[in-house]
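User: These chains co-purify. Model them together.
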Amino acid sequence: MGEAPRLTHLRADGSAYMVDVSAKDVTARSATARGRVDLSGEAVAALRDGTVPKGDALGVARIAGIQAAKRTPDLVPLCHPVAIHGVEVDLEVDDGGVEITATVRTADRTGIEMEALTCVSVAGLALVDMIKAVDRFAVIGGIRVVAKSGGRSGDWVRPE
Amino acid sequence: MGEAPRLTHLRADGSAYMVDVSAKDVTARSATARGRVDLSGEAVAALRDGTVPKGDALGVARIAGIQAAKRTPDLVPLCHPVAIHGVEVDLEVDDGGVEITATVRTADRTGIEMEALTCVSVAGLALVDMIKAVDRFAVIGGIRVVAKSGGRSGDWVRPE
Amino acid sequence: MGEAPRLTHLRADGSAYMVDVSAKDVTARSATARGRVDLSGEAVAALRDGTVPKGDALGVARIAGIQAAKRTPDLVPLCHPVAIHGVEVDLEVDDGGVEITATVRTADRTGIEMEALTCVSVAGLALVDMIKAVDRFAVIGGIRVVAKSGGRSGDWVRPE
Amino acid sequence: MGEAPRLTHLRADGSAYMVDVSAKDVTARSATARGRVDLSGEAVAALRDGTVPKGDALGVARIAGIQAAKRTPDLVPLCHPVAIHGVEVDLEVDDGGVEITATVRTADRTGIEMEALTCVSVAGLALVDMIKAVDRFAVIGGIRVVAKSGGRSGDWVRPE
Amino acid sequence: MGEAPRLTHLRADGSAYMVDVSAKDVTARSATARGRVDLSGEAVAALRDGTVPKGDALGVARIAGIQAAKRTPDLVPLCHPVAIHGVEVDLEVDDGGVEITATVRTADRTGIEMEALTCVSVAGLALVDMIKAVDRFAVIGGIRVVAKSGGRSGDWVRPE
Amino acid sequence: MGEAPRLTHLRADGSAYMVDVSAKDVTARSATARGRVDLSGEAVAALRDGTVPKGDALGVARIAGIQAAKRTPDLVPLCHPVAIHGVEVDLEVDDGGVEITATVRTADRTGIEMEALTCVSVAGLALVDMIKAVDRFAVIGGIRVVAKSGGRSGDWVRPE
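Assistant: Joint model of the six components:
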């Protein structure tokens, strides 16, 4: 992450480009991201009681996240297309909202942190859409990579 | 936001559905959302110096956000398709990261808070993708609606 | 549906084109389509017991159908883009499989039978995907428009 | 297809997820699906005479099917993205309608039955769209996998 | 097209944005674009004889163009979503290649020149894809708006 | 490119299909395409001065091109999906307009000329969209493959 590799990656005119990953190895890789949606007590109660007006909010958010993971290269302009091998999304309701954790797996030339982050973000957006008639103050936050494995940099767990 | 309208909206079996908005008026509507990406000092310096390895990070994030606003109904399962009339995205670099503000406008039967939130979220994801070789600890957060106008509920500004 | 209007619609060389609907009125329209997935007794039992290996099959099928309704003009080449106002999908498990009914609403210049049919078809496809580890003999069938309202031809119910 | 593998695949809370296929072998795989569109005699005549008002109905249906096969993971929520190697779609007009057969090929870790089924379904939808001004009673049915090869379960032909 | 309106449209920092069209009138609008694909004599002969290896090249190009017109706002980042009312694509084979003409219609707040240009461009790309096994020297060119009607600027025909 | 291979590729009824590439080798491949947008002197000046009303025209065109390269199989009906490894887009402003050059890389079973051509075409379309308020006479042209490497046919440079 020093000065040299960055300068070699930067194009002469500073313009955006999609980095060539042809020379990278195909290895099994996974990434886990987390985030949360802060909600009112009324919204948490509606989630727990299954009385969210638009229907099964957690189920919809989970599917939205999985589908968004597949669409990451369409959303993030310089992201490489990656063939995703598996996705799991956990949505845990607590007293202050919903904690979202997503793990994405592949065997490819480039990491899939962006897929995991996109999965969490869009699951959060879908949850806000489902609950917004009950709570217009919902906040999505803390979206970050918490662990990754595989690739040149090997296993990594975010110190928290 | 009382009990009665919610119960009438909920289907008998609690299953998800897209609410019928045919009876709502077409009015000029806008929504503004905010969020931010927390970054290391090194990453902030790279943004300010224009030395981000993958190129023009702020420009790419802005375009990603505008395009994502248009794709909101594709990402958020129960969102109605809305013909967007205008989008503006501001990315302000400060010492701790980048503050993102997006305003989306339309004249339609339903609000566009979700479009504004999706715009901010995906701009944030694209920014993290651009900068992740420099800062693997980036966190996206504080994504929320801060103001809206038009529609039955009229103008609203989030008290902060 | 006589000879004359068809001949005026046909291009001289018989090539495909998207019919101009500018002159049609904007009216409230709805369409209801039905279809079913024939399944084995084992698969029906798994749906009823909630033991489908890949998870909540009916919930996933419902969301897939709603999202596909929105993507109809992307899938059906000569279909006009229509702003959908509401979608409801019912999945009823019986001893021989699952009956799927979808109602789609809009206020536009052209009907939305194709959106209702696409919704039912893709809900059926998603259901087959969820259950295929249990039943590789699933058959999707009987996909048809059963009722429509609005537009020049007015209300119509399929005689069955 | 016994109880044990299903239980190990099912998540503790029964929620939907995309199964991890990393451990599966990359092998050449193909799947063939069939289905048909039942049509009136008038519609069959229009297809045979090339007088369908919107143009070349069979050609449009074929292209729609091929493109839909590529978009399967976008439509079917828990489907893995698969790099398709080839697609063939046959549309055979008979006195009662059109028989649709699609064969899809790949070399990947997971089967492509869903791609073949999606191809047939969307070819059927596009055909209905082309012909609906002539026949509003069209029915799409009999959509099923008729053969597959490759993968752990090897070659398989549906007994009919 | 003077200096004043441009300066008011330009944001202070020169960053890209989607112009707000809320104040523009909804009027019937159409745009016609043209372009051509230059081909070898062998390729022209294959088109005329119907012996292009991958199949019906002109039919595929026409469908590709119509579908691309619908996807314009997804491809052109700052383009407004517009509900297209009709599309016609003409492909005329001459001794030097294929002349492509597309007319797109709508009734909306903003013009659809970009939809017509996108239709011609992608029809050209699809044609090159169909014929590239026969002619690897194909060139797509002359893509331009030749006429438009409706909107504030009224009818306009390109002087040629 | 003789008669024999073409005849074996053609289906009996001449209908379109996606050629099976399963038997082709996975090799590193690249393709470079070029094209240009002819512009008025006023438009060239606006690009050079950074006073294009809608913002950073060259940056937006570059991103549009990169994203379109990834979406090629969605736009070009019979194109195989290919996992792109890298994309670079150069936009060079000269006195008559903008010269666009794109290089796309992969390691797959089939070439990526179509991805490079699509990248150039859509970059051109996005540029026209950005500048059309200044110059309604813009023409996109000269879109062609100029070099490719890898695959059965090996390295190739277009003689010009």
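The mean pLDDT of chain F is 91.
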